[in-house]
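Q: My labmate handed me this sequence with no annotations at all. I'd like to see what the chain might look like in three dimensions before we decide whether it's worth expressing. Could you predict it?
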Amino acid sequence: MLPGGGAKGYAHVGVIKMLDSLGIVPDFVVGTSMGSIMAGMYASGYSGEEIARLTRRFNIGNYIGRYYPRPPRAFMITGATGAGLLGSQLPGTPLPVILLKHGQGSVSVQTSIADEGAINLLLTALFIRGNLIARGNFDSLSTPFRAIGTDIHTGQRIVLDHGDLAMAIRSSMAIPFVFDPGKVDSLELVDGGLSENVPVKLAREMGATRIILSTLDATHGLDSATRVAEKGTLDMMLDRIFLDTHPPLGQNDIEIRTDVHDVGNLDFAPEVVAKLDQRGSDAARKILPGACLPQRTRNIRPVPPLSAAIVTPNTPPLTMAVLRHSVRPRQNSFKSLFRPDPPHPKASQLSLDTVQIRMAYAGTSGVLHALWLDPLRTPGDSVVLDPKIEWGSQKTFGVGAAFDNDLGGQVWIGLANRRAKWGGLPAMEAGGRVTIGSERQEILASFRKSIEDVHYSLSPFLLLMVGRESEPFFAIGPGGVTAEVQLPVFSEQLIQLGFDVPIGDNWTVQLGPLLRNWSGGLSDSATHPTPTGIAVRFGAGNDTYVRYGRFDWELNQRFARGSGRASFVLARPFAKLTNTLRAGGVTAHAPYSQWFLLGGVDGFPGINIGESVGTWTASYMADLAKPLFGPINFQLTGMTGTVSRSSEVNIGGKWLWGTRIGIGSDAQIGTVRFQYGLASNGRRQWFARVGRWL
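A: Here is what I predict for the chain of 694 residues:
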């Protein structure tokens, strides 16, 4: 019996591993919430080691807990650097405080707690094997299985024993205010922990005479006040869902208690998952060897080949097309510019592992909210699927905000429509963003081919931008004191035509000609005030390994400019280290608006943002976050970097070193920092920021 407990449920994997090593095979398995995921995978025929490998590969933690809402592409400036000195520093992806989505006749608020679309497709991927074996009947799995849900209207326990295996498990783990209710047989279901988190009663009803219960000990003898102080109010609320209450166990029953009191319900960090796995194994090792349980060989039912699956004739053509696209490889559109892609492999040639990867990836585009295979009960060995599609939201509205003690305040509003139509024109993805800040104001609009597939493909785009900025400029005054100088307002207009070119699953290239026009600031408008040129951007991201990179290059009649940024995260049980590298260079004839800030919009410890500016730059920042209490971290930032205004010195100029120390947090509005900074040149200054700067 595997009860729920959010991320703590990964301790069940260690218990299953120990059962496997001792040859102990249960007659059936029952799970609630996160426990239903582990029980469902075991019932599908996976071993404990295979479950551990799959949950690492398809980590639900990438889309729950500290997940940030993913804004649509229309909110982002693409293909060319932004307006003015602040806008040209590769500031990053807009992070909305509020993201409203409209689709299928309803409006929903996307929070930072979970990305439902990605999680739904990930569950479908994990349970393809179980669905092919069960064919709608959970008694037909390698080990009979039951999940528990709760009727949202009556509060009654609902036992899930048939239908789509992924949908049943998704319903069992539908934590209120985190996930929408699941729908099974016209019932709306929420997390099973609300009605029977520890499924001992159901096991007795199914005829169990001896129970093996994997208990998640979340209290460890601590009172409520102490647990709130250590873990926060949200975790305590979730603990109320995952109550450890059940009928008394008999003297022949076995309870394995794993200490999980120091783990948050939504903490899916890889190092935490590994720790829970080990704790579960250690707890089971103390109990199971002496329990005198019978041993036998586990019977794993064969998986029907994918080529044996039949889709019902009444399946809509568009659903069929999406189903095919979700299991075919993503095209390398860059290569397809020069030669056609090779034919896609037939279903009979696709491995289950390959289909799982592609199905999980299909949930990251935002086009799909869910794809349920819904196998039907049929006589014989045939597998009949009646797939159900839930489309992602068509319209999105977002609001973001940030504050910085150097740059002031900033607010932006974004609107996007994934399938906008005008007259007889083909559907297109259209949208834009308006940014209003103390230093910078900008209007951005973009138009591109609508995504008709479950992944991005080669797409033309049009980008329009108008911006104005009070560029930060500092000069050394009397007595060597640095003072900010008020420059004329810089204004710029930009238009670009180009192509989005996906390369594999993680890389995207954007390229195309552009036309700029600028005036004011320190720009010399007498020399090509309206230059034409070409811009190229390479972007890469990997949510699994938390690695991101971007490189921009532009060549026009006035200047040539290249800049890049790469970041990667090293997460350890005691702290998280975020590493960021920046480098860039621009020719001497570029206007001041295209120069580089030392440290970009993150600034440099002890120095005002904009105080150290040059035509060449390079920097490295290491940001260490160690949890203190609740969401508050001890924040230590180290940085080194250089800027140069000489075409001969480039990045070989004088390097500065600096550090900031203070507290911080990763909130839905972005990073929160309050630190004191020191630089190797003797400068020192407080740094305060709330939100992600654009």
